[in-house]
């Protein structure tokens, strides 16, 4: 790889979050999707990020059990 060439996995990593956020131009989206279609390593990273986002969204809407809230409250330490 010459100095001017960019590693396609590095480029994919750069595009991954905007790809998940649907913020890419059509050309960038095609570039990212084409790489994900060919690269199992980046595809695994994409799936991990996608699943993590799904988990966070779900955790944000689920009500925490009162017992767990109490246990977490007891673990808090004073800042002073």
User: What's the tally of helices?
Assistant: 4
Instruction: Find the CATH topology.
Output: Arc Repressor Mutant, subunit A
Rg result: 20 Å
Query: Strand portion, in percent?
Result: under 5%
Number of domains: 1
Strand count, sense and barrel status of the largest sheet are: none
Cα(first) to Cα(last) distance is 55 Å
Q: Return the average pLDDT rounded to an integer.
A: 88
CATH architecture: Orthogonal Bundle
Structural shape: elongated
**Number of β-strand runs:** 0
Task: Classify the secondary structure makeup into a structural class.
Answer: mainly alpha
Residue windows where pLDDT falls under 50 for at least 5 positions: none
Chain-wise SSE layout:
Elements lengths: L7 H13 L5 H13 L1 H22 L4 H10 L5
Helix pairs in contact: 1-2, 1-3, 2-3
């Amino acid at each position: 790889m010459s100095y001017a060439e960019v590693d396609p996995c590095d480029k994919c990593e750069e595009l991954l979050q905007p790809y998940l956020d649907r913020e890419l131009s059509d050309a960038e989206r095609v570039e990212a999707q084409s790489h994900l279609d060919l690269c199992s390593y980046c595809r695994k990273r994409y799936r991990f990020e996608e699943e993590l986002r799904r988990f966070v969204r779900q955790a944000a809407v689920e009500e925490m059990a009162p017992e767990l809230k109490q246990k977490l409250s007891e673990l808090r330490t004073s800042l002073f």
